[in-house]
Design goal:
Length: 311
């Protein structure tokens, strides 16, 4: 009798355990390894797609021309030499005259990207603060219109901008390139700083107003010191975007006095006398500057972009 009662009690328990083992929770646990494997494979494919061209350029630049032409290809430099970088940097050998051109183009890129970054951030600070804190007519319409320019293809404005610069006599000048960069980067910088300013408590400014500060003084003495991470993110992104530009400076500049490194490297590719090992070395040097900046200052970029996404 006791055995029958015990069997009657264990049967419902066994059925419950069976239902749990075959229920949604169990199916979710069984799918977890597959999801993890899928994510790992996806990340690996993205990294391979993004980093392999950079690795191949570095691999080619560290070998000789004959070693780069061998078949099958070597996935590690064979032989390992630094002659291409010595030639590009003007250390021994003629270097096909590349060292002077590359140095001047790097200077042009720094000047144009740096100046565009400064002008963009200064204007974006005041514009974003006005949109985030002040009340005026058509505020939302103007703000949406500014952000809507991000949806326009950049190349759609290429010819109009060139004609404007040509009519002003600014073609082949730093000023033309800087103005075009600022017009393209400003909406994104405003959006980044607008979101960051909205995360700053209004009580800080209200306390400054109580002490008799004007809106301008509150911005300069209270808001900007607190918003330094967001400002840094906008500045870094503007500089990186400026460094990566190719088509606009290609159209707006005509000689080495103003051409950035992206244009010069492409121009060297058209000169058949320049070995492609040297071209790869130039490309690696040109990509190293934004690459190092992005790696070192990555946390500021992420913090500035994600500001305002979590309340």
């Amino acid at each position: 009798m006791a055995a029958e009662e015990a069997g009657g009690q264990t049967a419902p328990v066994a059925r419950a355990v069976t239902r749990v083992a075959s229920g949604p929770a169990a199916r979710a646990l069984s799918r977890r390894p597959a999801r993890l494997a899928g994510r790992i494979i996806t990340i690996a494919v993205i990294l391979l797609w993004s980093l392999f061209p950079i690795y191949w350029a570095l691999n080619t630049s560290l070998t000789t021309l004959s070693g780069a032409d061998t078949a099958p290809a070597h996935y590690f430099p064979s032989p390992l030499v630094s002659a291409s970088y010595r030639s590009v940097l003007g250390i021994g050998g003629s270097g096909y005259g590349i060292s002077g051109e590359l140095g001047r183009s790097l200077l042009n890129s720094v000047v144009e990207s740096g100046a565009a970054m400064v002008v963009t951030v200064v204007i974006a600070i005041f514009a974003a603060y006005a949109f985030a804190r002040m009340q005026f007519r058509f505020k939302r319409t103007i703000f949406v219109s500014v952000l809507a320019t991000l949806l326009l293809p950049a190349y759609a404005t290429l010819i109009p901008l060139y004609r404007i610069m040509a009519s002003l006599g600014l073609v082949n000048t730093y000023l033309a390139v800087i103005l075009v960069y600022v017009s393209g980067f400003l909406p994104l910088a405003i959006w980044i700083l607008y979101n960051y300013f909205n995360t700053i408590p209004r009580e800080l400014e209200e306390a400054a107003f109580v002490d008799g500060a004007s809106p301008m003084r509150a911005l300069l003495r209270v808001v900007i010191p607190v918003a330094k991470p967001g400002i840094a993110a906008a500045a870094i992104i503007a500089f990186l975007l400026g460094w990566a530009q190719f088509l606009f400076p290609l159209i707006l500049t005509t000689d080495l006095s103003t051409q950035p490194v992206t244009v010069i490297v492409a121009a060297l590719n058209e000169q058949r006398i320049v070995p492609f090992t040297l071209l790869m070395a130039c490309g690696v040097i040109a990509a190293a500057v934004p690459g190092v900046l992005a790696l070192v200052l990555n946390r500021y970029i992420v913090q500035g972009i994600t500001a305002g996404s979590i309340k």
